[in-house]
Design a protein that fits this description.
Ribosomal Protein L25, Chain P, alpha/beta, Alpha/beta knot, 7 helices, single chain, elongated, eight-stranded parallel beta sheet, 2 domains, binds S-adenosylmethionine, about 230 residues
């Protein structure tokens, strides 16, 4: 269970209305129930529910069962997709260890805004489901050119590109796996020529290929994260 509160020996933890509702109405728990909680900072804790009502509740921290581990997963910059597939990208990217999720607006993208609250809730649920001890930040959507203008050049940007002078992903990641990294995946219509030209002039950009087939945009993001996990993940 994700709790946005400090966790520590003997600490009481307030449960807001949403969390209390989830414990009462969905998990059907009562005071005295024990469960595992994390907050992204203090590791995983066994907590006991001490009070539970419609409007909120409280739990007490009993003991720490897992220490917090550093979470240096690669960022995923992705063009938001139609028909619930943006939510799906967030869910799977959290499972695959992405360190930050950045919806990215590109010229051929067909989604102009994202529901940030919903995406953040998806990230929390996915972290809970996969027993990850942190919830990656989901940032609000930004145009690609603005992201590139403010980019920290110390972070490599692997750009998934199905054609052109792309290095195979495995070779590219193996050679640079000690560096902070991000992946950029285009929309279903692909990047346009001006975007590709701009990307190709940037010193921190490495175009990478994921094989000879044209993958759907969501598949490309998952494949990139899975390759990174296999080569550089913990
Ligand atoms: N019609 C587009 C085109 O030909 O440019 C296809 C875009 S593809 C459906 C969506 C995105 O997935 C691409 O912009 C790229 O970032 C990524 N992608 C798809 N297949 C890939 C591959 N084999 N290697 C690397 N990236 C790929």
């Amino acid at each position: 269970l994700y709790l946005d509160a400090p966790l520590g020996s003997g600490l009481p933890v307030a449960l807001d209305g949403d969390r209390a509702h989830y414990l009462r109405a969905v998990l059907r728990l009562e005071p005295g129930a024990r469960l595992l909680a994390f907050n992204g900072r203090d590791g995983e804790w066994l907590v006991e529910v001490t009070r539970l009502s419609k409007s909120g509740g409280e739990a007490a921290c009993l003991e720490r069962v897992r220490p917090q581990v550093p979470d240096n997963g690669p960022w995923l910059l992705f063009a938001p997709l139609k028909g619930g597939r943006t939510e799906y990208v967030v869910e799977k990217a959290v499972e695959l260890g992405a360190g930050l999720l950045q919806p990215t607006y590109t010229r051929r993208g067909d989604v102009a805004r994202v529901n940030l609250d919903r995406l953040r809730a998806n990230a929390v649920e996915a972290a809970e489901q996969c027993e990850r001890l942190s919830v990656p930040e989901v940032r609000d959507g930004q145009p690609l050119d603005r992201l590139l203008a403010g980019w920290d050049p110390g972070r490599i940007l692997f750009v998934a590109a199905e054609s052109g002078r792309a290095e195979p992903m495995v070779t590219a990641v193996t050679a640079r796996k000690a560096q902070p990294a991000a992946f950029l995946v285009g929309p279903e219509g692909g990047f346009d020529a001006r975007e590709l030209d701009a990307l190709n002039t940037l010193p921190f950009v490495v175009p990478v290929g994921l094989g000879p087939r044209v993958l759907r945009a969501d598949t490309a993001g998952f494949a990139a994260l899975a390759v990174w996990q296999a080569l550089a993940g913990d």
